[in-house]
Design goal:
By secondary structure, this protein is an alpha/beta fold. It has 4 helices and 17 strands. The strands form 4 sheets. It has a 6-stranded mixed sheet. This is Acetyltransferase.
Amino acid sequence: MRNTTRYPVEGPNSLWHVYKTVPFWKVVKNFVVIQLARYTPFLGMKNWLYRTFLRMDVGEQTSFALMVMLDVMFPEKISVGRNTVIGYNTTILAHEYLVREYRLGDVEIGDEVMIGANSTILPGVKIGSGAIVSAGTLVHKDVPEGCFVGGNPMRLIYTKEELEAHMNQQDADVKPQLRKY
């Protein structure tokens, strides 16, 4: 189960209560910053924008590809480790507005994580260091350190040990093909 905090609402669905849960001007500021960052080709500038204006914890040499969409209401609940790659058009959410409640949860992405393009990361999940998330994956639960996951719904493809063995086998298969010139 994802680690989220639930907030029940009465009356209309929880999205009708949105500005009771997050200030309007905070959403406007976050929207402008996120849109600027989505289109800028300068990785260092993106990280600076996220750290400075969105209060996100972003590690050194982390790369957010073009069109990454961060949670516009609670980006400060997202942390990303060092030397991580977030692929094109990935969405990272820290909130869910449902009919009778809304939920908030921190998203923790470790060091040296690879997240493929067009993935969606839901609130309250932790992606361990060294993990690989295949393109187009819906990350709806925690990803253990060093694992390779993918799909919708997300499933484990390789454990850390299986992935290391698979990579070592690929290296062994390539070596006989190499020639010295």
